[in-house]
Amino acid sequence: MEATKNYRLIPSFGASFGTGWKVMSDNFLRLFLVIIILGVIAMPMSFLHVNFDFHDFHNWEDFPFDHENFMRFGAIGLAAAMLGFARLLYVLLLLPVFTFGGKMMFVQSVRKQVPEFDLLISGFRKNYLNIVLANLLVSALVGIGLVCILIPGIILACRLAFTPYLVMDKGLDPIKAAEESWKLTRGHGWTIFFMAVVSFFIMIGGLICLFFGVFISIMWIKGAFASLYHSALIEKGMYEVEAA
């Protein structure tokens, strides 16, 4: 492993975004390709969607006594249900493997290791169940927190932000990864929150700077959060940086 002395590995807002930008610059082509791949992988989400329009039915006032409308209603409803189920399976069983692997590639970049594209699919060969369950656990906890009371959901999202990294990096099971993320983010909750808020405006800026700016924004944001994770590991003594 190469020394990381050239990066400012401090778990702070400024250092994370500063290091994230440098990480993006040093590994631009590889990380750019990662973002493109993840975007292509996420594309089926836009296709597995059905817009149900009641105006498609003629003589709606006669429904359900009109046989033709009844059959069309049933066919569209069945198709929508099947596509919805396919979309759910895709989100729960396939997409997390790629997104978790992508996060780990950014961590490798922060560590000045060559990002390995094999990480995008390695989760299917090993640690698959932990990835799927960790994604489900975090999504459920944050979702419940947001639905019930907004603030607990935000707190959970911030404190469990490192769960995907820990599953990929340390090979932890979902419960242990969530527990370690809670410990690792102690004292950095506000940093993660403000980074998330600023990331939103960075994305807006990327959109304003035309389509290519979005890729720059995403790489910068992912690099910043990977830097924060790795810096927190060093701070907690969970990762030792080798001397040059």
Description:
- By secondary structure, the protein is mainly α.
- The chain has a domain at 13-41 and 99-235.
- It has helices at residues 13-26, 28-42, 44-47, 67-110, 119-125, 128-148, 150-159, 163-170, 174-184, 189-208, 210-235.
- Helix 2 runs antiparallel to helix 4.
- The chain is globular.
Counting DSSP H or I runs of 4 or more residues, the number of helices is 11
Regions with pLDDT < 50 over 5+ consecutive residues? none
Question: What proportion of the residues is helical, as a percent range?
Answer: over 70%
| Biggest sheet character | none
The fraction of residues in strands falls at under 5%
Alpha-beta classification: mainly alpha
Beginning-to-end CA distance, first to last residue: 10 Å
What integer value in Å does the Rg equal?
21 Å
Overall form:
globular
Taken in chain order, the helices and strands follow as HHHHHHHHHHH
Beta-strand segment tally: 0
Mean pLDDT metric: 87
Write the layout of secondary structure elements.
Layout: H1 13-26, H2 28-42, H3 44-47, H4 67-110, H5 119-125, H6 128-148, H7 150-159, H8 163-170, H9 174-184, H10 189-208, H11 210-235
Write out key terms for the chains shown.
244 residues, 74% helix, globular, single chain, 0% strand
Provide a brief overview of the structure.
The chain has 244 residues and is mainly alpha-helical. It has helices at residues 13-26, 28-42, 44-47, 67-110, 119-125, 128-148, 150-159, 163-170, 174-184, 189-208, 210-235.
